[in-house]
Design goal:
Elements: H1 2-15, H2 19-25, H3 32-60, H4 71-84, H5 86-114, H6 119-129, H7 132-145, H8 150-160, H9 164-179, H10 183-238, H11 244-268
Helix pairs in contact: 1-3, 3-4, 5-6, 5-9, 5-10, 6-7, 7-8, 8-9, 9-10, 10-11
Amino acid sequence: MIEIAHALFQHIAERIPELKLKLRQAGMDDKPEEFVKKTVLVSLYMAVGVFVFLFLLLYNFGAFHPLMLLGMPLLGVCLLFYLVKLPDAKIISKQKEISREIVFAGRFLVIELQSGVPLYNALSNLSKNYKAVGAYARVVIDKVDLGTSMEDALNEAVELSPSEDFRKVLWQVINSMRTGSDIASALSSTIDQIAKRQQILVSEYGKKLNPLAMFYMMIAVIAPSLGMTMLIIVSSFVQISLNLTMLVILAAALGFVQFMFLSIIKFSRPPIDL
């Protein structure tokens, strides 16, 4: 039975594209089949817990129906698909953290190299001054200390980095080392390109804010205010009873709409510090 379950977890892991690489980029030490096993078990426990809670709640109110039992496997599958995306969520989080630092960290590295500081020492200083980018610089330094060549350590950092911009910076350093060209000047050009792209993202974000703000005012501010006024007036004519439960439901719906708008604005903001 254990061998069958292990084979099933391994089969699921193989069906998820690039799961092994995603786990490494997300900083998760689990093997693909171990991650799938944990995800399946957690989703199962959560589905049973949620179902038991709903069962007790609905049973007390006499609203439970046996057909609701069919919802537990569906809930478990939905939770499984949600939790499988955990490495992707962590990768996105790391990408945002790196994007906030990449321009400043890149310019810091350029200044260090232009000042005559060796690449090893420049990366060591970088790891001490920047949290997100510095974590990968620290990995490179540690591997070099263990006997790995600088080029091989940088290549491994390229593979582990979830940020496309940071990979460009590392590739530029590697190519300059291979060709024997000046690392600082080539790196400076790459950093300038990244900075210009970030400026474009900020400009596009500013253009998105105008329609978002207009829709927010209409749907989350004007419509609820006028709608509630009209509802009170209409209820006085057609004798609709506005009890506390209905008002709470309307307030909850309004809060949900405002939360969705704020979430859209937050997640559409480019991860850039200017």
